[in-house]
Q: What sequence folds into this?
């Protein structure tokens, strides 16, 4: 209820501001009175509001979707809880820790007069590498491309102390000098998050047919089956339905379709599917559902209320300038 009232309040402010701007635009006064400060507050407020509204959508999705078991999960939107499984020889970038998934961020400390801040100069993750989630009923693959990731930092390093060898090598590979001459180079902060095999994870995403997400892989499995049929005289005789000693194009196509169906039936439900981003968002978290909801509440509050406050300030400043 409080969230809905907040949305209505902020939309009212936004519409009022736009109405005032449109009225003044008709008198050609708006371009002079819409100062850079008002524009900055309005843009920042709108950005925060969008961020908060997106978090609100995620929160409602999580609350309304029941947690499924992997073996019995349906196709479409799913919520899963289990443990991470490493599917490839993947290592975290700064500590070379064997992991199922990782994210990293490299920041540089910059000073501009009286203002000092950390600025992100590189960030990335292992979204090109699949991993799996497992519960007591089964295991299913996860394609993490396009996911929203909520992972706690595992390691934070600065280059004014001893960096792990893997971190120094990673920086060099990225074209970043780990430390300047006599340690006078830029000050860097490196943050690394990852999922180790066996870590508890929460997943919100789409259970999609494997053939839809990995069509080449599914096609390769079918081709192997068809090659085996071609090399087996007894199998070829079985698909020669008219018994003329030759397999026609129509008979081969019927056999291909039947083989594709058998290939799907041979797989357990979780092996026919893959969790990926689709029409439904993909969320990967090392927090429990309740912890993630609590974190999203803070994002909602900061975005909706903070964005609304900034837009209200922009509207008040605009009104004051046009009185």
A:
């Amino acid at each position: 209820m409080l969230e809905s009232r907040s949305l209505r309040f902020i939309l009212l402010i936004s519409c009022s501001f736009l109405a005032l701007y449109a009225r003044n635009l008709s008198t050609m006064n708006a371009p002079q009175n819409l100062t850079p400060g008002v524009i900055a507050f309005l843009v920042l407020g709108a950005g925060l509001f969008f961020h908060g509204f997106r978090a609100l959508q995620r929160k409602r999705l999580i609350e309304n979707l029941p947690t499924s078991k992997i073996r019995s999960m349906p196709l479409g939107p799913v919520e899963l809880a289990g443990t991470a499984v490493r599917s490839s020889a993947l290592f975290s970038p700064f500590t070379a820790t064997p992991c199922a998934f990782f994210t990293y961020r490299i920041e540089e400390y910059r000073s501009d007069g009286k203002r000092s801040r950390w600025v992100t100069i590189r960030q990335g993750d292992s979204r090109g590498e699949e991993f799996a989630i497992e519960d007591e009923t089964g295991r299913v693959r996860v394609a993490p491309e396009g996911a929203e990731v909520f992972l706690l930092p595992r390691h934070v390093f600065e280059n004014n102390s001893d960096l792990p060898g893997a971190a120094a090598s990673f920086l060099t590979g990225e074209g970043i000098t780990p430390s300047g001459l006599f340690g006078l180079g830029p000050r860097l902060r490196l943050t690394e998050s990852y999922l180790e095999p066996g870590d508890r994870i929460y997943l919100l995403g789409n259970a999609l047919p494997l053939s839809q997400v990995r069509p080449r892989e599914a096609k390769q499995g079918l081709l192997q089956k068809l090659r085996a049929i071609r090399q087996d005289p007894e199998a070829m005789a079985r698909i020669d339905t008219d018994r003329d000693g030759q397999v026609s194009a129509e008979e081969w196509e019927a056999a291909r379709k039947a083989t594709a169906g058998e290939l799907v039936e041979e797989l357990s439900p979780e092996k026919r599917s893959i969790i990926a981003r689709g029409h439904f968002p993909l969320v990967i978290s090392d927090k429990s559902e309740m912890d993630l909801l609590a974190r999203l509440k803070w994002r909602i509050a900061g975005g909706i209320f903070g964005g609304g406050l900034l837009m209200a300030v922009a509207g008040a400043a605009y009104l004051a300038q046009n009185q």
